[in-house]
C-alpha cells in the first residue's frame, strides 16, 4: 500500500482528490480503461504494459504501426508545458491510427474562466473517445475520469506533483530492456528533487510493484518529502554512499517552477554534492545505466559527458515513451470497448 501524496495546490480539486483516489482505472474484469496512476495496478498489469509496448519496438529501433485506435478521436489537453510527453503522445496516437486534436489551452475558454468539467463536457460533445491530459493540479485526472462519459478514456500525462504514470512505465520498459538483471535483483537509486517530482512518486510505486527490493532515494534533506521512509525506500543524503553498487541511476531535474523559496545554496554547490559525474558513476555497478526523464539541466544534476556517454539510456527512454504510450492507449481503448459490450 502506497501512501497518498499531498496535492500541491489548494483548489476545488484538492478536496475531491481523496474521494476520487478510487476513480476506477480498471473494468470489473480487471482490464485497464483509464490510466490515471501506477498506484492500484498490480504486477500483472504493469508487466502486460511492458510486454505490449515491447511488441511495438522493432529490432532496428523503429516502431511498428497498428490500427488499434482506427476511427477514434484523441484529444490532447496540456494545461502545463511539455516537449517529450506531448510530442511522443501525439506520435503514438498517429501510429495507432487515431484522429488527433491538440487543444491550445492558452487560446481556449479555460483562459476565460470556464471550469475544467465544462471544458471536458464540451469537448466530449465533439465526439472524443480519449483525453490525454497534463494538469498542474494533483488529482485532476481522477476528477476528470469521474466526470467523463462512461465510454471515454482518460490518460494521465502528469498531474501536479502527484503522478506521471506513462513516464514511470517508459522508465520500466527501459530498465527491462537495458539493465542486465531482473527487477527483483536490481539496486536502483533515484537522485535529486524527489520532493517536487511526480516522476519519482510514480517510479517508486512501479519499481516496488515490479519487485525491486533495494530502492534508494539520494538527495539533500530539503529536496526530500517529509515521511519519505514510509514509502519503503532507503534514504541517503550522501551521494557517494547512495549510488555505491547500483544498477540503475535515475537523475531528476530540480523543479524550480514548483519551489517557492530557494532550497539550495547554489547550483554549482548542488552539482558538486549531487551531480552525476563520470567519476561518481564509477562507484555504481560497472554495467549501471543512467536515466533522466528530461528536461535535463547539464552541469546541475548531470554532467554532459555522462548524459551523452555510453551508459546513458536517456534517448532510448524517449523512444520507448512512444511504445509505452501506444500500449497504454490501446489497452485503455480496448477496456472501454469491453465496457460498451
Ligand atoms: C517530467 C515532468 O514533466 O514531470 N518530464 C517529462 O515528463 N519528460 C520531469 C520534469 O519536468 O523534470
From TrEMBL:
Specify which residues bind L-aspartate according to the UniProt entry for this protein: 112, 198, 253
The Aspartate/ornithine carbamoyltransferase carbamoyl-P binding domain extends over: 34-176
Superkingdom, taxonomy of origin: Bacteria
Amino acids binding carbamoyl phosphate: 84-85, 134, 164, 167, 294-295
What are this entry's molecular-function GO terms?
Answer: amino acid binding; aspartate carbamoyltransferase activity
Pathway(s) it belongs to: Pyrimidine metabolism; UMP biosynthesis via de novo pathway; (S)-dihydroorotate from bicarbonate: step 2/3
The UniProt annotation puts the region (Disordered) at 1-25
Q: Which GO terms describe its biological process?
A: 'de novo' pyrimidine nucleobase biosynthetic process; 'de novo' UMP biosynthetic process; amino acid metabolic process
Query: Cross-referenced InterPro entries, in alphabetical order?
Result: Asp/Orn_carbamoyltranf_P-bd (IPR006132), Asp/Orn_carbamoylTrfase (IPR006130), Asp/Orn_carbamoylTrfase_sf (IPR036901), Asp_carbamoyltransf (IPR002082), Asp_carbamoyltransf_Asp/Orn-bd (IPR006131)
Q: Where is the composition biased (Polar residues)?
A: 1-12
Q: Which Gene3D superfamilies match?
A: Aspartate/ornithine carbamoyltransferase
For this protein, the Enzyme Commission number is 2.1.3.2
Catalyses: carbamoyl phosphate + L-aspartate = N-carbamoyl-L-aspartate + phosphate + H(+)
Residue stretches making up the Aspartate/ornithine carbamoyltransferase Asp/Orn-binding domain: 185-331
Phosphoprotein keyword on record: no
**Keyword set for this entry?**
Pyrimidine biosynthesis, Transferase
The family database entries (Pfam families) matched by this protein are listed as: OTCace, OTCace_N
List, alphabetically, the GO terms of the cellular component aspect: cytosol
Supply the HAMAP family for this chain: Asp_carb_tr
Among NCBIfam families, the record links this protein to:
asp_carb_tr, PRK00856.1
Its family remark reads: Belongs to the aspartate/ornithine carbamoyltransferase superfamily. ATCase family.
Quaternary structure, per UniProt, is: Heterododecamer (2C3:3R2) of six catalytic PyrB chains organized as two trimers (C3), and six regulatory PyrI chains organized as three dimers (R2).
Q: What does this protein do?
A: Catalyzes the condensation of carbamoyl phosphate and aspartate to form carbamoyl aspartate and inorganic phosphate, the committed step in the de novo pyrimidine nucleotide biosynthesis pathway.
Question: What is the name attached to this protein's record?
Answer: Aspartate carbamoyltransferase
Q: Which organism is it from?
A: Moraxella equi
Name of the gene: pyrB
Amino acid at each position: 500500500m502506497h501512501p497518498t501524496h499531498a496535492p500541491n495546490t489548494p483548489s476545488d480539486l484538492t478536496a475531491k482528490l481523496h474521494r476520487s483516489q478510487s476513480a476506477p482505472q480498471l473494468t470489473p474484469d480487471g482490464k485497464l480503461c483509464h490510466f490515471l496512476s501506477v498506484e492500484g495496478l498490480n504486477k500483472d498489469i504493469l508487466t502486460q504494459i511492458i510486454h505490449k509496448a515491447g511488441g511495438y519496438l522493432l529490432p532496428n529501433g523503429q516502431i511498428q504501426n497498428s490500427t488499434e485506435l482506427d476511427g477514434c478521436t484523441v484529444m490532447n489537453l496540456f494545461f502545463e508545458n511539455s516537449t517529450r510527453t506531448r510530442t511522443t503522445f501525439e506520435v503514438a496516437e498517429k501510429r495507432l491510427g487515431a484522429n488527433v486534436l491538440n487543444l491550445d489551452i492558452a487560446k481556449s475558454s479555460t483562459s476565460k474562466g470556464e471550469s475544467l468539467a465544462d471544458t471536458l463536457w464540451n469537448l466530449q460533445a465533439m465526439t472524443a473517445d480519449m483525453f490525454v491530459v497534463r494538469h498542474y493540479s494533483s488529482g485532476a485526472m481522477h476528477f476528470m475520469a469521474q466526470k467523463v462519459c462512461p465510454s471515454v478514456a482518460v490518460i494521465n500525462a502528469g498531474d501536479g506533483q502527484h503522478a506521471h504514470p506513462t513516464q514511470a512505465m517508459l522508465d520500466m520498459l527501459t530498465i527491462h530492456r537495458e539493465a542486465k538483471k531482473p527487477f527483483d535483483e536490481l539496486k536502483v537509486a533515484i537522485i535529486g528533487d524527489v520532493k517536487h517530482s511526480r516522476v519519482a512518486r510514480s517510479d517508486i510505486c512501479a519499481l516496488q510493484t515490479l519487485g525491486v527490493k533495494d530502492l534508494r532515494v539520494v538527495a539533500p534533506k530539503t529536496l526530500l518529502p517529509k515521511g519519505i521512509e514510509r514509502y519503503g525506500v532507503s534514504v541517503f543524503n550522501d551521494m557517494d554512499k547512495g549510488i555505491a553498487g547500483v544498477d540503475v541511476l535515475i537523475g531528476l531535474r530540480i523543479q524550480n517552477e514548483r519551489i517557492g523559496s530557494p532550497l539550495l545554496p547554489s547550483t554549482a554547490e548542488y552539482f558538486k554534492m549531487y551531480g552525476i559525474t563520470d567519476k561518481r558513476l564509477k562507484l555504481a555497478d560497472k554495467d549501471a545505466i543512467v536515466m533522466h526523464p528530461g528536461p535535463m539541466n547539464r552541469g546541475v544534476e548531470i554532467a554532459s559527458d555522462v548524459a551523452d556517454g555510453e551508459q546513458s539510456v536517456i534517448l532510448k527512454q524517449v523512444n520507448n515513451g512512444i511504445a509505452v504510450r501506444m500500449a497504454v492507449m490501446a489497452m485503455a481503448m480496448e477496456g472501454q470497448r469491453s465496457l460498451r459490450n
